[in-house]
Fold each of these.
Amino acid sequence: MTRLRTAIDDLGDATGEETGALLLAAARHAVTYRTAPRARQRAEATYGQSVAAFDDALPEDGETAEQVLDQLVRRAVPGLHAATGPRFFGWVIGNSHPVGVAADWLTAAWGQNTANHVAAPAAAAAETVAARWLLEVLRLPAESAVGFVTGATMASFVGLAAARGEVLRRAGWDVEAQGLFGAPPVRVLIGDEAHASVYSALHYLGFGKASLLRVASNAQGVMCPDAFAERLARDVPPGAPLIVVTQAGHVHTGATDAHERIVPLARARGGWVHVDGAFGLWARACPAHAPLAHGVEGADSWATDGHKWLQTPFDCGYVIVRDAGAHRRAMTIAASYLPPVSEHERDPSHYVPELSRRARGFATWALLRHFGSKGIAAMVARHCAQARLLAAGLAAEPGITVLNEVVLNQVAVRFGADGDGATGDALTRAAIAALQEDGTCFAGGAKWRGRWIMRLSVIGFSTTDDDIRLSAQAIIAAWRRVASTAAAS
Ligand SMILES: Cc1ncc(COP(=O)(O)O)c(C=O)c1O
C-alpha cells in the first residue's frame, strides 16, 4: 500500500492525480473489505433491504467520483456474503483470489475490447497462452480450442452448439446455414441429475427438455452405465446424430460419470460427448484425484469454470472443444470491418458467443502463473481432504447423516432420524437457518431426490483445517439447538 501510495503521489498532471486518488480510494475500500474480520459469513442485509439502500431517484446532476464511491460502498457492503472468506461453503464458489482480483482490476483499467487480436493484442495473447496452460493442467487434448466465457453455463452452451453443428454436418445438414427447422432429429442422452444449467444450454439450442433421452442415475447422482447402454441401444437408431452429455462433479455429491464406459459406447455410435465439469474437471489437475475423472479426456467438448476451483474473480468460465473447426463454425462472427485472422493468430471472439467482451485471459493467466500446476494440485487435494474431515466430524453426531460418498469437495447432509420424510425436511431447513443466523460459516440447502439437504462445498483457497473444525462445531451446535427446540415442542 505504501509503495502504491507513493506511486500515486508521484503522478504529475491534474487528471492523473484525480484518477489516481479515485483508484487508490477504491483500493483502500477493497483492502478494508478483504482484511476486516467479520462476525458472520452471511450478508447482513437481505435483497429487499439492499434494494431500499440503492433505491434513490435518478439524479439529474452528477456527483463527484469520491461521493459515488463512498455511496456505493456504504450501500453494497451490508448485502455482501463472505464469499471471499474461509468459511463460506454455499453453492460452489471460489474465493476470488487477490492475485486474480488485482489482474482483474488492471483488466478493467486497461479497458481492452477482447474481440480480436488487432483490437486487443495483449488480451488476445494472454488468452492464447492461458488456453494452452489450461489444456496442460487439465490434461486435455493439446489440439483443442478454448473459449473464455462467463461461466460453465455458457461453456456448455458453446460446447453443445459445436456438437449440434458437427453431428448434423456429418448427417449432411449445415445447421449454421440452414437452421434447425427440417434438420434430421438429434438424439441427446443426458443423466437425469445433470446440472440445471446444462438443460438450459440445451434448450437455448432448440433441444427442449421433453425431447431429451434421460438416463437413470445411481445413489451418487451420476448415470448408471448399464442404464446408459440400454437407453442407447433402445432409443438411438443406428446412424442417428447423437450427443451425449456427461458430468464431472455432481453439484451435490461431487461424483463423476463413468467415462471409461460411457465414452467408448457413445463414440462407437459416432456420438459427440460433452462433459459438464464446472468444478469436477479440476480433479484432473491433481494426481491423487485424477482417476475420478479417468476417461474424460476421450470426450469431444468440456465446460468448466475459472471462478470455482481456479479462484478467479467472477465471471470466468472455459469451453474446450477438441475439434477447433467445429468450435469456430459454431461461434465465429465475421464482418468486413473485423480483421482477418491467419493460422498463426487467434481471435478470442471466434470461440465465444460475444463480440465485445472483457479480457478474462489476464486473470486466468495470472492465477495459473501464481499457483503453478503443483499449487493447483495441492489446493484440490487439500479441499478434498477438508471435505472428508468435515463429513467425518458431522457424521459422528447423532441425528446428522452425510448422504454422499465424499469423493471430492462436496458434502450433502441431512438432519433428523433416517427416513424421517417431512420432519427431516423441516429439521434440515431449520438447521440451515440456525447455522446462517449464527454465521460462523455459511451453507445453503437444496432438495435432492425429494429430500432437503444442507450442501457444503469446500472450494475457497483460504480455508484451513481449523476453519473446517470450527465450522463442524458450529453446524453441530446449530443442529443441537434445532433438535432441542423440536424435542421441547
Ligand atoms: C456442475 C455444475 N455445472 C454447471 C454449473 C453452472 O456454472 P456457472 O454458474 O459458472 O454458469 C454449476 C454451478 O455451480 C455446477 O456446479
Amino acid sequence: MSRIVSSLKERCSSLSILRSINFCKHDRYNSLIISQNQVHGKECRAYLSVPVRWKSVSNRASSFSAISESKDSISIEGEKIDQISSPVDSKDSLSTSLINEQYGYLSTFQKKNDSKDEQFSVESAPYQRHSTLDLIRSILVLKSCQIMGAHPKLLSQIEHIFASRKIFPVTSSFLTFIIRNTAFRHFCGGENIQEVRNKSLQLWKIRTGTILDYAAEHTQEDRKNATKKKDNIVGNNSVPNFNTSTPNKPNQPARTYDYDTEYLCDKHVEIFLECIRAAESISEARKEVAPETENRGKSFAALKVTSLGNPFLLERMSSAISEGRNLFSKFDKSHTGVISRKDFEEGYRLFFKDADERLPNILERMDPDDSGKIDYVTWSKFLGPADLPRIVSSCRKAGPLFRSTPTGKELELIHVMYNRINKVAKEAARTGTRLLIDAEQTYFQPAIDNITQNLQQRYNNIDMSPEGPIIFGTHQCYLQSTPQKIHHDVERALRFKYHFATKLVRGAYMIGERIRALHMGYPSPIFETKAATDACFNQSLEYILSQRVLQNTKSEIMLGTHNSDSVKLAMKLLNDLEISSSETIYFAQLLGMSDHLASLVMTNGHIVYKYMPYGKVDEVIPYLLRRAQENSDIFSESSDDIYCMSKELLQRIN
Ligand SMILES: Cc1cc2nc3c(=O)[nH]c(=O)nc-3n(C[C@H](O)[C@H](O)[C@H](O)COP(=O)(O)OP(=O)(O)OC[C@H]3O[C@@H](n4cnc5c(N)ncnc54)[C@H](O)[C@@H]3O)c2cc1C
C-alpha cells in the first residue's frame, strides 16, 4: 500500500491523510477515488484507474468511509482486501499496476451502487428504439467481444479459423451466415453502398451522422486479377518490380515493390471515389428523411493511406523524412527549435560540399523575410522526399540521410501514390466531403503526415475553401512527440494560410509500438502511463481550441474517443471559450459502441458521427479482427453499453 500511497502523493501533493476510499465510475475505467475531504479549504481528490474487470465490483460497490492500512493489507469498513490475482496487462496505467501488484482483484465487495441508475438515466434512452431481438444480439456480441478483448490469443485463433474456413465450404457458409447476422450487423454499415446508405439515413433520423470507412483489405480475387494485369501495368505505368537483398545500401531500394500491390492500390482509388460520392448523396438525402433538421450535417469519409501505396514505400519515405528532421536537430545547437542564419550556414558547410554555390539560394528560400531565423516549419517544407536526392548528392559522406533517401524508381512510385491520394482528395473537395486521413504506425506516420500537409495546403486553402477544411489529419495523443507536432502543424497552417483540421485520438497501436521499440532497441515513442496520454489529449484539445479563438481561424477537430471525460471536457471548453459553432468539434465513435455517450452528446446539442466500416463480410471481418488484435482494449470499453442495454431489456421483460 505504501507504494500506492506515495505514488498518489506525488500526483496530488496536498494529499496527506487518506480518509475515505470510494469506488466510482470515472471515465469508462473504474476508479479508486482516494480523497481527503478538505485541504486548505479545497476538496482534494486523487483517482487511480483500476482494471476493467473490476467493473463488476464497482457496479455493486459504493462509498466506504472507514479505511485502515496495515503494512501489507488494506481494510475498508473492517473488510480486509488482500486477494491477489494475475498481473495486469500493459494497457493499464502505472498506478493500476501498483495497486494490482499488491492487492489484485477485489472480489469481496458486495455493496450496492445507488447512483449508477441515475448516472445512466439519460444515456439509456438510445436503446429504447432497438427491437428486443436487436438488444439481445447486441448484448451477446459485445459480451463475446469483451471476452476476446481480455484474451488476445483467442482473437488470433478466431482469425485463424476464419482464414482457413474456405477449406470446408459448408462450414464456411455457416460461419459467414452467423457472422453476418451478429458481429457484422452490429459493427458494420453493410456489404455495399446501398446498404450503407440505408443504414446511414436510418441513423440520421436520430441525429447521428456517419463516417464511411471502406474496411476491406486485398481479396483473393483482387490478387488473381492483379497477377493477370501484370503485363498491362508494365506497358502503361512502367511500375517496376525491383528486388534487392541488400537493405541499407546507399540509394538502393531495400524492399520489394510488386505489381500486385500497385494494381490493388489503383483498385482502392475507385472504391474510395465511390465512397466519397456515396457520402455526398447520403448528405443530400438527409433532408428528406428528417426535414426538421435545419442543417444537413457534414459528409465524412475515412481513408487509410496504406491502402493507396505500398507500405514498404511509406516506410522508406518516413525514414527519409525522419532523417531530415534529425539533420535539423544537428543544426539546432541551442535546442530551441529555431536556428540562426549563422548556425545554419555553419551546419550546412559541415555536412554539404556545395555551400558556396547553393547556400545563398537556400537561405533565401528558408528565410524569405530576412528575419535571421529558420525554424522546423520552414525546414520541413524544404526537405520533402522529392527534394532529398538533389540535396544528398552533395553530402560530404554517406550518413543516415544519404542512406534513407529514396531512389529515382522509388520517387516515381511515391509520385504515383501521391497522384492516387490526390485524386481522392480532389473528389472530396468537389463534393464538399470531409476526408479523414487515419493515423497509423509510427514507421508510416511521417510519410502520411507529409502527404496530409501537402493536401491540406492545397484543399484547405482559406480562399479556395472559405467554409472550412476538407482534409483532416490525425494526431495520436499517446505519442510523446504529439504536443510539439500539433504546435508545428497549427503554426504551419497559419503561415501557409490554410485551415488546420485534425482528428484527435489517443492511438490504436500502443502494444505493437512498444514491442517494436523493445525489439529494435530504441526508446518507446509512447507515453509511459495512461494518465500522461490523457493529459496530452486534454491539453492538445485545449491548445487547438484556444488557438482557434486567439488567431480567429476556422480550425476544426474531430474527437475520435469513447472517453466520457474527454467528451465532457470538449463540451465545457466550447462553452468556456464561447465558441458558438457546433461544427468546430465533431464527436466521433465506432458504430455499435458507446450509444449512451452519443446520447449525452446529442442532449447537449451536438451531432455524433459513427465510424461505419463496410465491405463484403468475408473481407471486412478479417480486417476487423486484425484491428481488434491491435486495439483489444477497445472491447473492454463496452461494459456501459451492455449495462444500459441489459437495463432496457429487463424493463421490457418486467
Ligand atoms: C472515430 C474514431 C477514429 C479513430 N481513428 C484512429 C486513427 O486514425 N488512428 C489510431 O491510431 N486510432 C484511431 N482510433 C482509435 C483510438 O486511437 C483509440 O485506440 C480508441 O478510441 C480508444 O481510446 P479512447 O480515447 O476511446 O478511450 P480510453 O479508454 O480513454 O483510452 C484508451 C487508449 O489510451 C491509451 N493508453 C491506454 N493505456 C495506456 C498506457 N498505459 N500508457 C499510455 N497510453 C495508454 C491507448 O491509446 C488506448 O487505446 C479511432 C477511434 C475512434 C473512436
